[in-house]
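Reviewer 2 asked us to include a model.

Predict the structure of this chain.
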Amino acid sequence: MSELPANWAPAPPTPPRPGAKSAWKPLLLILLSSLGLAVITCGGGFALGKDGGGPFFLYAGLVFMGIFVMTLAAIVVYFFIWMAQKSGSHE
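Predicted model (structure tokens):
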């Protein structure tokens, strides 16, 4: 195996692309849309009452609330990963 020359140095890290994608916009879009859908469908369920499709709208609202909570948990996890990456890049 050949040895490296004395003046060898690793290549400098490449900076991120200017158009690098971030996950913040899609996560926030899902968060806001699921909250809006939950409020609208639960409101429709309360407006219809027990007759007709009211309970189904309430269940649909609960599903959207579940999507909201799961997206919020994903945002919290992503935030900690994002902070760890930001702190590690300032060495």
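Residues 24-86 form one domain. The chain has a mean pLDDT of 86. We have added this to the supplementary material.
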